Structures
1.
Amino acid sequence: MSLDLARPELLEPRALIAGAWIAGQNRSDVTNPATGEVIAHAADLTAAEMRQAIDAAHDAGPAWAARTARERADILMRWHDLMLDNQEDLARILTAEMGKPIAEARGEIAYGASFIRWFAEEGRRVYGDIIPGHQPDKRIMVLKQPIGVVGSITPWNFPNAMIARKVAPALAAGCTFVGRPAESTPLSATAMARLGHEAGLPDGVLNIVTGSDSAGLGAELCRNPKVRKLTFTGSTEVGRILMRQCAQNITKLSLELGGNAPFIVFDDADLEAAVQGAIMAKYRNGGQTCVCANRIYVQDGLHDAFVERLGEAVAAMKVGPGLDETNQIGPLIDQPAMDKVQAHLDDAVGRGARLVAGGRRSDQGPLYFEPTVLADIQPGTRLLAEETFGPIAPVVRFHSETEVIAMANATEFGLAAYFYTRDLGRSWRVAEALEYGIVGLNTGLISTAEAPFGGVKASGLGREGSRYGIDDFLEIKYLCAAV
């Protein structure tokens, strides 16, 4: 298919290892979920080629770490500028390979670029410490140094931003990087890599290994002793596997895993603001985000009005291919995703849930599902226990603050939560009681480069973004000097 790009060379099907573009012996089809058309035939590399990429990153590490923070920052800033200069092409590639509406794709490119800019600046502020000595002749200094080769495994739902959120702090800290993008969305990664190379990243500092052998490529990243840190975004189930594989080498881990986000609306909330916040938190990317509102709890006094207003707003949303500017909901990523959404809907309706809006597969194509609102959700419904990753909003009535906090926390996950209230005291009480790494108060949009992104409990380890986000890419060295 033709994407009508200003720079067609950004549609790069090859992988990048040690500064060379590698086609490999095998290819895998990259398919547009909106149409079923093949966009490109991407390099389908093996664990042996992953080892080559790790070796290249390892060899390039000392020279990159020896550069001044300012030199690294200058290259990252050029990369940031190139991403924004080519925002439209990057967005069109992203929408074509994963399906999200083009306006959201443009937003993702800007969001991803913001991490490169943030960490270009933050890398110049990696400060050590001088600690008062414990003896008169002793001086204690604390140094922060790059951890070394960083391996990355990223998902398909944000194929640009999830890489940017990992590669930017790694490179700013002086580490080198080996990225393994999702099999279904490799083209955003290779397009970013082309621009990074153009910005002046030295050979071997950034490597992108594409391929369909998830287990083999991932195992090499986990078990290769030259990889000193692995950063992963994906399911909790896979996160547990990676932890086990990394244990042998005691490889440092950052894990951003599954979520089951509650969205709570109290009686004193601004109804229209809460409805609009729920739409942003639930239906962005067709519900295919880890911080999506998965369970919506509305207090008695506002419940009926909220359900009615949300149903009206959702029924008016337009479904169709993401490259059409008028569409708000694109396709799901693949058939298993569609099957899960349908199974969750059938389970809820079978238990007595009331259909308020949507509830059907769209006639746009096999991977389209109408944005849906359900009310009268019964206990035990799969929608409440599992992450749906699709455009279904289950609304549950609640009575008291204590009750809803207990319901919101009744999950192994702890990534994101949202609540709406105009009561100052309740704002503090609920924010402190929710067992989540991220809490949105009176907002459905919570992600920004300036803030620490990450979860608690089974939702992961570590934080991305903010001044804390560079810490996981640094080792602390204590120097004790006798004078």
2.
Amino acid sequence: MAAVVLAVAAQAQGAPEQTPQGAIVVPNDVQIFGKNDPNNRRATAIVNGDIITGTDVDQRLALILAANEGKIGDEEKERLRLQVLRNLIDETLQIQEAKAQDLKVDEDEIEQTYARVASQNFRQDIKAMDAYLVKIGSSPASLKRQIRGELSWQRVLRRNVQPFINVSETEVREMMDRMKAAKGTEEYRIGEIFLGATSENSATVEANAKKIIEQLQQGGSFVAYARQYSQASTAAVGGDLGWIRLAQLPGELQQAAASLSTGQLVGPIPTSGGFSILYLIDKRQVLTADPRDALLSLKQVSIDFAPGTTEADATKRAGEFATAMKAARGCGAVDAVAASVGAQVVANDQVRARDLPGPLQDSILALSLGETSPPFGSIKEGVRVLMLCGRDDPKVDSGPSFDQMMSQIEDDRVNKRAQAYLRDLRRDAVIDYN
């Protein structure tokens, strides 16, 4: 049964008192008749006449489970199933809107995008990708439908939103001037998952957001969750907002983002239209060369331990190895020193500092030519050191070009209009649940 809320509002003279719900009046002493459990539904819906089947939901859910290596409990799966259904409803509305405006997405374009996703995201050809999707319980058709939804929505926004976004040259130049004035301050590359919410479903959406954070903290793929769950236009690129300064974020997100370290999550953060989950991908200083972009020439010197080596023996040999490496005078002499202690040497002159594991980056960047890093490794994997043989430092970052800055401002405004557009489509939709 549908829930029926009995509300008696007293008439007051003059203008009605504003409430957090606006014109919707919800008294504090709500009395509910009947029982309505929105979670007690079969995962099937008919959206303006188009059917979403339980199989559609299962196959899309399989993509999320695979991204998390199946480490999701039964209770969490049911919550995810409902979220996937909501996403499929939005996707259906987006496809329907494109069709209503005669905005076609060619099958060839979908196939090309599918092939690109297989190659770039999964490093597989089309046949291997097809087999992989079937193996995990999904299907090529499910992923292609998601691609169709993204391409359809892009076309809708390109016709109905982007032409009405006006960014003047003055605005762009003012933004660039502010960026130059902020030289040396920090710039952030942030990922966002945005979940739209109303006053009626705010508690449920917030609970869903907390569950998503739990899964991400347990090793879930942020990009995969953003593509499946986020209702922002950046969902198609895994939630990546690109490089931004905190001043470009809404006020409620600025403080939360400022407290993050690289690789950390924060949320759910209440916003005007719902909740956001932020992930700090990276950060750097505005218009300042990032040392982590330095191109390094390294030699890796390593020793292995025979099976059964005790910890005491391994520690002793590792100490001798470290002492020998410190005595090596430059990269020209390291090969001979390594041979004297039975170590192996591998060279690479195209290593970017930011591609090294975090704990090693600072120690390597602090080295002078011919110096070695502290030993690292284990009895099982062996012990190794890195010797710095050369370093090409990055040039000073000149910042985004005029066109890039204009595009960034336009994208931000399109994203906000797109959220409002999708809310209107949901409001006008006729949705039947089985």
3.
Amino acid sequence: MTGFRRAYDEEFVAYYSVRAAQLRSTAYLLCGDWHLAEDLTQVTFTKLYRAWPRIERHDTIDQYARQVLLRTFLDERRRPWRRESPTAPEDAVLDVTAPEVRGSEDREVLRNALQQVAKRRRAVLILRFWADLSVEQVAEILGCTTGTVKSQTSRGLGELRDALGELTRSTTGGRK
């Protein structure tokens, strides 16, 4: 039995060493916080390790890992101690400096804008354009129809465009 388990452990360690950084990056895009992304990745790999001997089709492990990560992210967002509450009235002007849009800072601006997109739509956008999955694959991961993925993609892109426009206007002082 130990030889059987050792073979599974070696396969899992090999998979982890190849995919951990990519899954952590995907988690960061989902949540926007490196510490939470580390937690999500750890929980995902723990769940994956526990299911490893039962996974028969090793060609779909990446898709399964993304699905576990997404569900873990959505579950974390539902937990009451993770909920944030505003400390200032909604109409209060907060002293926040918007990132400037220049060269290498474009990536940070995109991340900030992505955090303003609703979480389900953000997940669809990340799976479609970051993980480069097809509409059908995203639908299977999310457990919805391809039509839902298409509409969520369209709405998510609209929200992302609006958020990018707001960030751009705030960094240029309202000038276009």
